[in-house]
Amino acid sequence: MICATMKGPPTIESRKRPRWRFWATVLGILAIVYFVGYFVLMDRHRPTSPAGAFGYFQSSFRWARNEVVHKDVPPTVTPYPNVTILNVIYRPMDGMYFRLFPRSDAEIERLRSIGYLR
Predict the structure, then answer these.
(1) Mean pLDDT of the chain
(2) In which domain, by residue range, is 67 found?
(3) Burial class (CB in 10 A: 0-12, 13-18, 19+), 33
(4) Cα angle vertex 98, ends 95, 99, to 5°?
(5) The total number of structural domains that make up the chain
């Protein structure tokens, strides 16, 4: 006699469903960490050097040290933060953030006065 509560062997369909659920959860968690990490790690009030070798980024790593120009003797420290890998990782968030929340005129003038913007 076969018990009514026993199910047969797992089918391919029943084995795939938990995998998709697991990967969907992992991707959701990564998206949340990426989004929250932008606001925790990046300083949106300090863009990188407009003449930087690695490109211009709208925000910088909050705890990045300022760039040092080694060509000068003695080396000089610039007011611009160093470019880090986080600038590259969060470039899409920069674009989205500054498209939704453009800089105010006062902030643009402040950045222009210290040499960030031309």
Answers:
(1) 84
(2) 18-113
(3) exposed
(4) 80
(5) 1
Alpha-carbon distance of 99 to 95, in angstroms, equals: 6
Whether 6 is covered by a domain: the verdict is: no
- 94-105 pLDDT, tens per residue? 999 999 999 999
Q: Tell me the β-bridge partners of 68.
A: 77
Helix (H, G, I), strand (E, B) or coil at 4: coil
Token couple for 21: 């659920």
CA separation, residue 112 to residues 65, 72, 117 (Å): 20, 24, 5
Secondary structure string (H, E, C) spanning 24-73: HHHHHHHHHHHHHHHHHHEECCCCCCCCCCCCCCCCEECCCCEEEECCCC
Going by C-beta distance under 8 Å and a sequence separation of 6 or more, which residues neighbour residue 37? 90
Report yes or no on 80 lying in a domain: yes
pLDDT tens-digit profile of 35-76?
999 999 999 998 988 777 677 899 999 999 988 887 777 888
